[in-house]
């Protein structure tokens, strides 16, 4: 499971940092056995079956703009996504921001439920409030479960209602391998997705909400009196 998460996190980060591949309308790219792009003269997407000897159970690499699959390995295998779950949570937060439902300066309270989450966190206290801007920073940089739950509760009234919206969005995006049980990614029976589905929601986030890179490219920053840094 941990190896799966590492590979998906790498590919997710890669999608932020890598420049799009250039290609003609009549040509697609695939990975060769030397792991370098080669041209395939076809008008449709080509998926490489080259064995990269990855130790992960599942992996996928897509070109962001076109959605073309450059490499895949067991892309529809259902596995536990851990904190990659937060990609969907962040997507819904960005939709709320871009629609005007919330603003970056809105103050978000911390409930007892949010404060008790455990796992990766910034130790929110029920007596404090953080802005949406600060919450996004904590979620994207520190993978903060407490902030994730606080945002979910603020947006939809409860985590269960927020998870319903996560699953509805997953269905809308064609994420047929996915079932969300929570908004943070802590292991729970039936909480699964696939590398293919992760690529769908990651692409949706990057294409329609590119301002998220303001947060996902942070290496180290300060929040309250604490420093937060990328894992």
Your description of this structure?
The protein has 231 residues and is α+β, with helices and mostly antiparallel strands. The chain has two domains: 72 residues, no CATH class; 148 residues, 3-Layer(aba) Sandwich (Beta-lactamase), CATH 3.40.710. Helices cover 38% and strands 13% of the residues. The relative contact order is 0.16. The N terminus is likely disordered. A hairpin with a 5-residue loop joins strand 1 and strand 2.
- Please write the string of helix (H) and strand (E) elements: HEEEEHEHEHHHHHEE
The end-to-end span amounts to 17 Å
Molecular shape:
globular
How many structurally independent domains?
A: 2
Largest sheet: 2 strands, antiparallel
Radius of gyration: 18 Å
The CATH topology assignment of the largest domain is Beta-lactamase
Q: Output the strand order for the largest sheet.
A: 1-2
Query: CATH homologous superfamily of the largest domain?
Result: DD-peptidase/beta-lactamase superfamily
Fold topology:
Layout: H1 2-17, E1 28-31, E2 37-40, E3 59-62, E4 69-73, H2 86-98, E5 107-109, H3 112-115, E6 129-131, H4 132-142, H5 145-156, H6 159-172, H7 195-208, H8 213-216, E7 220-223, E8 226-229
Antiparallel strand pairs: 1-2, 3-4, 5-6, 7-8
Helix pairs in contact: 1-7, 2-5, 2-7, 4-5, 5-6
Compose a concise summary of this entry.
Helices cover 38% and strands 13% of the residues. It is an alpha+beta fold.
What attributes characterize this protein structure?
alpha+beta, 8 helices, single chain, disordered N terminus
